[in-house]
Design goal:
mainly alpha, 3 helices, elongated
């Protein structure tokens, strides 16, 4: 009986430790994503150009994209497009290192 209690105790401790480290990793990943998004937003190369004739030319700062089944960087035309797809469409395969910045080797270079 004592062996069973000991085994149950160690299994419970192991499960608690596993849960603790999973939550810690999730927090670290969320912080890394937030940091990468802030770096991306602060980089002037990722900003849309300012235009004086924006209203008259129909230029808008909103993307006209839709989730259409494209999932990979090779299917994207720009960093803006890849970022929009990452933020709005499920099942994207454009962030291999999971830092929140898609297509770093093709479109979103730092």
């Amino acid at each position: 009986m004592r062996k069973i209690i000991t085994i149950v105790f160690f299994v419970a401790v192991g499960l608690l430790l596993r849960e603790h480290f999973q939550q810690k990793k999730a927090r670290e990943t969320a912080e890394a994503v937030q940091s990468a998004r802030q770096r991306y937003a602060a980089d002037p190369r990722n900003q849309l150009p300012e235009r004086d004739d924006a209203a008259s030319s129909g230029f808008t700062r909103t993307a006209n994209y839709r989730c259409d089944g494209r999932k990979r960087c090779s299917q994207m035309r720009s960093c803006e497009e890849a970022t929009w797809f990452m933020e709005h469409c499920p099942g994207m395969e454009m962030d291999g290192d999971r830092d929140g910045v898609p297509c770093e080797d093709q479109h979103c270079r730092y």
